[in-house]
Specification:
Layout lengths: L15 E4 H4 L10 E4 L5 E3 L14 H19 L7 H7 L2 H20 L13 H11 L4 H12 L1
Antiparallel strand pairs: 1-2, 2-3
């Protein structure tokens, strides 16, 4: 299966595939990873051992904004196990399982709040305005609040 080159978020040019060795020669840990790069300098990584982009190519400012969103969003789902008692965690699911389910729940909540389809709610696909909106929505939010939202929707 051939993956079509993603279009650059900034100049709408198709990106080209390269390796981390070309982009980050000083980072040997990234040399074998694949990246989509636009002539304007925008770039995005690929899912592990594939050429499937993790999002859309982004310049430095947009990559920074997306990273900022992840710094707020990721702890919400990573710490979801804290919303459950230790006996629940041991009896029903591992922390890894809870984190995976919580990640999906947090992204569903964010998609709902932003008026996006779930398939379009991925930080790696956000533009600068969406990053700002996501930050506004996520700041101060707890997993308990998102869990309560999800339970209410299930009714």
């Amino acid at each position: 299966m051939t993956i079509p080159a993603p279009l650059c978020t900034h100049c709408r040019t198709p990106a080209s595939l390269t390796t981390g060795a070309a982009i980050y020669p000083h980072r040997r840990d990234l040399h074998k990873k694949r990246f989509w790069v636009c002539p304007c300098g925008a770039r995005c990584g690929c899912h592990l051992d594939t050429t499937v982009p993790l999002g859309t190519p982004a310049n430095d400012a947009l990559r920074w904004a997306r990273s900022a969103v992840h710094r707020v969003l990721d702890p919400i789902w990573r710490d979801a196990h804290l919303a459950y008692s230790d006996s629940d965690v041991r009896r029903n699911a591992s922390r890894k399982c809870i984190a995976g389910l919580a990640r999906d729940r947090v992204y569903r909540w964010l998609a709902d709040q932003m008026g996006l389809a779930e398939a379009q709610c991925h930080v790696g696909m956000f533009d600068a305005a969406q990053c700002a909106e996501a930050m506004r929505l996520l700041r101060g939010r707890t997993y308990d609040e998102i869990r309560a939202w999800a339970k209410e929707r299930e009714k």
